Amino acid sequence: MKKRTFLLALSVLVLSCKSEKKQNDNFITQEVQDFLDEYTKDYLTLRNASAEAEWEANTKIVEGDTTNAYRVQVANEAIAKFTGSTEVIEKTKKYLEKSNELDTVQLRQLNTILYEAGNNPQIVSDIVKERIAAETLQNEKLFGFDFKVNENSITTGDIDKVLRESSNEKERLQHWEASKEVGKDLKDGLENLKNLRNRTVQALGYNDYFSYQISDYGMSREDMLKDMDNLIKEIWPLFRELHTWARYELAKKYKAEVPDYLPAHWIPNRWAQDWSALVTVEGLDIDGALKNKTPEWIIKEGENFYKSIGFDSLPASFYEKSSLYPLPADAGYKKNNHASAWHMDLEQDVRCLMSVEPTAEYYETVHHELGHIYYYLSYSNAQVPHLLRGGANRGYHEAIGSLLGLAAMQKPFLAAKGLVDENAKIDKIQNLLKEALNYVVFIPFSAGTMTQFENSLYAENLTKDQYNHKWWELVKKYQGVVPPAERGEEYCDAASKTHINNDAAQYYDYAISYVLLFQFHDHIAKNILKQNPHATNYYGSKDVGNFLKSILSSGANNDWRQLLQESVGSGMSAKPMLEYFSPLMEYLKEANKGREYTLPETI
């Protein structure tokens, strides 16, 4: 009898303990949720103010007017003070110590808060404030710069047009050199930003700013660099053939000796990241088909594509609040000419900053930027907390934009839109060559030149007197390109690239996005549309739209590796990209017979 009484008492005690633990678990879960709700409310208010200030500063740049810069600085200091507050950091760390008592969505939000704090820790608030001011000033200098040729002011669009179209080598050289002049004004600012960015994140234990940015992927700096090196090695044999082909073709064009390395001003892009304008595909004259179209028509066509695969119309505010077209000559102010998509309030206020013109390049760009916009809108739903309304990783966002840009440029799609003749005979190899001069050529630039330069800058503490030397050392190694003449340290040609200044230490995102792009495209073509990956038409396919929504709608509320595995059946791999361009190798090897290769067989 006594034994039974003891066992009964013991079971009551165990049940009591379990009940008490459950109550404690519920208490901490609710406490964390209250913290997250309060943080989110304040964060959204401050983020909205920052976004509006940044928008104004990028869309209305008046020489000598510091009003916008002041507003940006004040707004960004306010959000930095909040996200990096000691109280926020300490509470977040305390809650993360109880991770086994929290649900996965709460943990993801807490990790997001702590990552955000790493860029703005209150314990070095003076440095954070100084960095924000320095970033604002750097942007003003970059976007307000007056580019000139023969003392005449020109736009970056004018420069790009000459580099794409002109056969006059002198004219090309003048415009290329003009495009780099901005770097002189930005060099000291870049050095200052490097130091401030490093010191900011080091306060929370990160080695450097480059490592901090990579940590957002759940990866180390060493692992990211290894992945980028492997990607370049995989595509190197094809890039080496493209480089050899380009040297000989451009030497013929400019009636010059074949150079060992490509002179930068020969290439139809300011940073040699895209050589596709070297090839014109007969029967695929998109520029000609668009010349009588309006910029407004191009944007509406982009929206119609997304609607055709099952997405909603863009909010009316998109057209009311975006800055979509080039400024009139008498505007009296300038704007940032780099195309971008903005999610202003993490809800329905989405905008684009572009200068759309009726060209094939902008036709693709519009579809790309609207890819970002529809990604924003897709994850702005009740299942995704505001703090997780972002891409599955940063590369996903660019992958989706580039995927829809690629899809919009394939012949069946263009024929369905009436932009090319459905019966036109198109040289498939030349078309593939044009695509490779875009997608393949971009990999050594993004995974090599840009990634290695920023690794040297932030992680290896590259000194200012080596900026230009290091830049051109990397451009030669990875891209096989050299400057037209010696470029001394009075220049800072790296800083002419927007991302070096205001989207720092993240350019590997774009390399990753191209890998993901071809994985998604391969899956859509083969498993959904049952079409040749080289000749697809996504238009009107609700199945394609549903597949995209399955990737987009969860935002960052997932494990990006698991999401990729579930969507395409494999981890991140360059195999689909290499397979896509495999028919081109045979052609290039034949074209390059008897020609001298100047890039090494391996890198």
UniProtKB/TrEMBL annotation:
<dbReference type="GO" id="GO:0008237">
    <property type="term" value="F:metallopeptidase activity"/>
</dbReference>
<feature type="binding site">
    <location>
        <position position="368"/>
    </location>
    <ligand>
        <name>Zn(2+) 2</name>
    </ligand>
</feature>
<keyword id="KW-0325">Glycoprotein</keyword>
<feature type="binding site">
    <location>
        <position position="398"/>
    </location>
    <ligand>
        <name>Zn(2+) 1</name>
    </ligand>
</feature>
<dbReference type="GO" id="GO:0006508">
    <property type="term" value="P:proteolysis"/>
</dbReference>
<feature type="binding site">
    <location>
        <position position="372"/>
    </location>
    <ligand>
        <name>Zn(2+) 1</name>
    </ligand>
</feature>
<dbReference type="InterPro" id="IPR001548">
    <property type="entry name" value="Peptidase_M2"/>
</dbReference>
<keyword id="KW-1015">Disulfide bond</keyword>
<feature type="active site" description="Proton donor 2">
    <location>
        <position position="499"/>
    </location>
</feature>
<keyword id="KW-0732">Signal</keyword>
<feature type="active site" description="Proton acceptor 2">
    <location>
        <position position="369"/>
    </location>
</feature>
<feature type="binding site">
    <location>
        <position position="217"/>
    </location>
    <ligand>
        <name>chloride</name>
    </ligand>
</feature>
<dbReference type="Pfam" id="PF01401">
    <property type="entry name" value="Peptidase_M2"/>
</dbReference>
<feature type="glycosylation site" description="N-linked (GlcNAc...) asparagine; partial">
    <location>
        <position position="150"/>
    </location>
</feature>
<feature type="binding site">
    <location>
        <position position="372"/>
    </location>
    <ligand>
        <name>Zn(2+) 2</name>
    </ligand>
</feature>
<feature type="binding site">
    <location>
        <position position="398"/>
    </location>
    <ligand>
        <name>Zn(2+) 2</name>
    </ligand>
</feature>
<keyword id="KW-0479">Metal-binding</keyword>
<dbReference type="GO" id="GO:0008241">
    <property type="term" value="F:peptidyl-dipeptidase activity"/>
</dbReference>
<protein>
    <submittedName>
        <fullName>M2 family metallopeptidase</fullName>
    </submittedName>
</protein>
<feature type="binding site">
    <location>
        <position position="368"/>
    </location>
    <ligand>
        <name>Zn(2+) 1</name>
    </ligand>
</feature>
<keyword id="KW-0862">Zinc</keyword>
<feature type="active site" description="Proton acceptor 1">
    <location>
        <position position="369"/>
    </location>
</feature>
<dbReference type="GO" id="GO:0016020">
    <property type="term" value="C:membrane"/>
</dbReference>
<feature type="active site" description="Proton donor 1">
    <location>
        <position position="499"/>
    </location>
</feature>
